[in-house]
Amino acid sequence: MNEIFYLGTRSPILAYKKIETLLQQYNTSAKHDKIAILDHIAKAYHPDQEEVTSQIQRMTSSDFVKNCERIHTCTEPKYAQLFRLIGRQPDGVRSLVHLRADLLRFLPEMDSPDYAKRMSDNLQDLLATWFTTGLLKVDRITWQSPCEIVQRISEYEAVHPIRTWTDLKQRLGPYRRCFAYTHHMMPNDPLVILHVALMDDISDSIQTILKRVSPTSNKSEEIQKENESLINSAIFYSISSTQAGLKGIELGNSLIKRCVRQLQVEHPQLAKFSSLSPIPDFRKWLMEELNSSSTSLISSETRSWLNSFLTSATTWHLDEE
C-alpha cells in the first residue's frame, strides 16, 4: 500500500497498475478477508494523532495560511489519496461506490468501527462531489431503451415489485413514465429510478395505478397515443435508490424536481403533482399502536374507525397479489 502512495506522486502509470491488482485481489477475496482489508486501511492510514497534536502546538499567530495548510495536510487521511487514485482508474468510480457499500454493510463486524465509519464518511464526501446533480443525466426509460437498462429497471424496483414482462411493459408504456438518474462513469446502471403515472386526477390508492389499463390498450403499440384530455395529474408512485454505496447523498429529491420540469414541457396542461409511495413498516407500526392499550397517540374514536377500515381493506396500500 505504501508503494501505491509513493508511486501516486511520482509515477501514476505504475501506481494505477498496482491499484488494479489491489482491486482484483479485493474483489475476489472472501467476506472475512474483505473486512480485514478495510479494517487495516481504515486504521493504518488514519491521521496520526501525535503528528496532528504537534502541528497544533506549533501554530503561531503569524503565517496563519501556512499553519492551516500544515494542519490540513496532517489531518487528511492517507486513504483519501488512495480513493482519488482509484477514481482515476477505468471503472474506478464504480469500484468506489461498491467499496463504500461494503464498508456500510461490514461496519458492525469490524474490529475498528469508529475508524471504518470515518473512512466511510470520507469516501461519501468524495463521492458527493462526483455525483452532484449537475453531473447527472435524467434519462427516460422506455420499452425501446437498451435491454440491459430495461432489465435493471425490473431488478431494482424496490417499492412495487415487477412480476412479469407484461407488467414491466405496462409501466414503461402509455400514461406512464420511468425516469432514471445516470452517471457517465457508470453507464447503463441507473442510480435512482422514478416511476410516474399520468392520470386524470390524484389517485387515492396504489391499486388504481398498478391495475390501470391504458385507454388505448386494445390497439397495437405503434398506434397507441395518449389522450391529452385524460392527463391532468402526475403521480410519483415509486422511487428506488439502487446504489447502497451512495447512501447519504441526496439524489431522489432533485430527480423529482427535474422530472417535474420535464413533464411540464411535455404536458403543459399538467396541474397536479403528487406522491403516492408507502412508508416502510408504517402498517406494522400502526397495528402495534392499535393493539397497544397504553398508546396516547390515537384517540378512541380514531382507533375504532381505523380498526373498522383495516378490517375491510385487507390489501390497504399493498401490491396486488
Explain the overall architecture.
This protein has 321 residues and is α+β, with helices and mostly antiparallel strands. Helix 4 (49-57) runs antiparallel to helix 5 and helix 6 crosses helix 7. It folds into 3 domains: 2-130, Up-down Bundle (Butyryl-CoA Dehydrogenase, subunit A, domain 3); 134-275, Aminopeptidase, CATH 3.40.630; 282-312, no CATH class. The longest helix is centred in the middle third of the chain and has 18 residues, at 113-130. The chain is globular. It starts with a helix and ends in a 9-residue tail after the last helix. 50% of the residues lie in helices and 11% in strands. Mean pLDDT is 84; it is low at 215-223 and 313-321. The relative contact order is 0.09. It has a 5-stranded mixed β-sheet with strand order 1-2-3-4-5, with helices on one face. It has 14 helices and 5 strands. It has helices at 2-8, 12-27, 31-44, 49-57, 64-75, 78-87, 92-106, 113-130, 147-156, 165-171, 206-210, 252-266, 282-291, 300-312; strands spanning 136-140, 176-183, 192-199, 233-241, 272-275. This is Malonyl-CoA decarboxylase. Residues 45-131 form the Malonyl-CoA decarboxylase N-terminal domain. InterPro entries: Malonyl_CoA_deC, Malonyl_CoA_deC_C, Malonyl_CoA_deC_C_sf, MCD_N, MCD_N_sf. Residues 134-309 form the Malonyl-CoA decarboxylase C-terminal domain. One of its GO terms (molecular function) is malonyl-CoA decarboxylase activity.
